[in-house]
Design a protein that fits this description.
Two copies of one chain form a homodimer. With about 325 residues, the first copy, chain A, is α/β, with parallel strands linked by helices. The first copy, chain A, folds into three domains: about 45 residues, no CATH class; about 130 residues, Response regulator (Rossmann fold); about 120 residues, Rossmann fold. Chain A is built from twelve helices and twelve strands. In chain A, the strands form three sheets. Chain A has a six-stranded parallel sheet with strand order 2-1-3-4-5-11, sandwiched between helices. The longest helix of chain A is centred in the last third of the chain and has 17 residues. Chains A and B meet through helix 4, helix 5, strand 2, helix 7 and helix 11 of A and helix 4, helix 5, strand 2, helix 7 and helix 11 of B. Chain A binds a DNA duplex (30 and 30 nucleotides) through helix 2 and helix 4.
Chain lengths: ~325, ~325
Amino acid sequence: MPQPRKRATIREVAKATGLSPAAVSYALRGMQVSGETIERVRRAAAELGYEADPIARALASGRTGMIGLLCGSLEDLWQQALAVGIGRALKDNDRYALILDAAGDPARERTLAGQLRDQRVDALIVQPVDPASPFWASMCESLPVVAIGDALAGARTAGEVVFDNRTGVTLSLEHLGDRGHRRIAVLTPTRDSTPDRPADVHVLAEAERLGLDIEVVTAPQALADATEAADRALAAGHRAFFCFADSIAYGVYAAAAGRGLAIPGEVAVMGYDDHPMSGLLSPGLTTVDWDIDGIVRAAVRMVVGAVDGRPHRRRIVQSPHLRERGSVGSG
Amino acid sequence: MPQPRKRATIREVAKATGLSPAAVSYALRGMQVSGETIERVRRAAAELGYEADPIARALASGRTGMIGLLCGSLEDLWQQALAVGIGRALKDNDRYALILDAAGDPARERTLAGQLRDQRVDALIVQPVDPASPFWASMCESLPVVAIGDALAGARTAGEVVFDNRTGVTLSLEHLGDRGHRRIAVLTPTRDSTPDRPADVHVLAEAERLGLDIEVVTAPQALADATEAADRALAAGHRAFFCFADSIAYGVYAAAAGRGLAIPGEVAVMGYDDHPMSGLLSPGLTTVDWDIDGIVRAAVRMVVGAVDGRPHRRRIVQSPHLRERGSVGSG
DNA sequence: GCAGTTCGGTGAACCGTTTCAGTGAACCGC
DNA sequence: GCGGTTCACTGAAACGGTTCACCGAACTGC
């Protein structure tokens, strides 16, 4: 059990400069003190190796300078990329991200969001698993929340970067339909316990409109799990897949390879999200792309704006495009 | 600016139960109080919706129950997978991971490690960018540190999961040599500012031994950057690549495709790490694999053991195997 | 020359826990 | 019935900052 090295406290800096702790506190944050004093305090602090204790600061001020990032499921490569991107963008804004993983579980999502609040994060960015939960309304009461993906129902968010999933779904299903696929397995990460998301509901509506025969199958995004789910669907005779995440589509590639089935000759696959790896597969994965850099920038601008109390756009809708690469042949 | 909902404090619970705050504190942690009182306190706490404030708790006790995870570079897909894996494994041990990204920068690594200490994480897991820094010794004085990858020089770590990079490098270079490749571009994420890591040094020694003509090129792990670096190497006439991360090898695939060069016919590529996606490419990426689940389990066991003061293995060496998939033809 | 500001700074309360050093009562053996 | 433990609990001091209320001195306008 190593003992923590004793750090200098604000009182020691005060003693060294002959000022009160309060003055030191103000000086180091550049408030209400003369320039000459600030310089003196800076010097003394540097000499003593003093740096304000973030925990004590958080307790007293209620702020931390950190921003919570609550991801829906970090098994998903695209969401991993999003998290990394947001982390780096926040760093460029001199802020730190606290990244947590809801693992696709609505209950866990609520727990973690509450913990981030208790940790005094200045704001929260969330890619909600369960956007319909009334919990979000109370969350938005206590700190600025920026939602990515789906808007939070009935909550006063500080901003939202909404994906136009209706268009995304329509593009995907139409593409499959145009290529002659009528019986389609829809692989979605949504857990049974999650209330139907707008996107999922829209899948049913569009399938009806286009006269498609679909079966919705739950598939986790981790490659091994997705492969297993895809393999079961292949065993059940499915040959056309609409995957609600590129990560899941990768599982279809793996499962098809395992059964010696060729893509796109014998199996058709559509992804959703456009992860960088999707362009590297053979054939490339046909998918629907979101502008991930744009999403990152928008979310970070919103959250930083909200924290600093600056005006900012509260709502941006991301439109998808079909990225055709060859994984959907004619059926 | 939303106002934080007022939460119940320990004093209110004390008042409600007619006990002192100290008694409540003890009761909720099941220490030194009668079972009947514990039950009474529990009930009152539940009724008031009381939960101990983690920040105040951290300030008073110096502990948080969180474990810091400092990654070398989260641009790397394999490291992303490792981070996610560790996060989930810690969750299974009822602990939370605080994930930070050093972005390949030794200075940033030191800064972030210090911040995690200041945040009172109970322990730190680090995949060091700069394992030779004397900084780690002082870090290990103030909290348990578990190192993944390279051992920390001159530091009393709580544990280390060391990769046998010597063997990994030897396997890789021998494989390339056996297939008749003599002139090899080594793509490594190591920044110029980083002191040479043992693995990098070993590359030079082994190249010498095997009579290979190598050129070391710095390449970031982000796909776009790796592709660019690989493209420059291709332009310089390189046709055989040893990439020090699968993520970098993906860049070679992309660059080769961009120039219409076939793998393995015209370009040979070796990866390092074995990310799940590597098996999905065509041809599959020949690489050196580490048992990522084993690494996760070992690191988590070590860190949890160190925090709980239980005895645990302090050092595990991971041995690599060659995972031949077809991306290295005969040159 | 006097009320009214502004400036630079102080003292003390406060944030919400944990923990150390007691303390009174019950219980023990003898 | 007496010293010695144990038990269940209390009071107050940390932990290391921030912030509020206030204060004297130096300006300001008139």
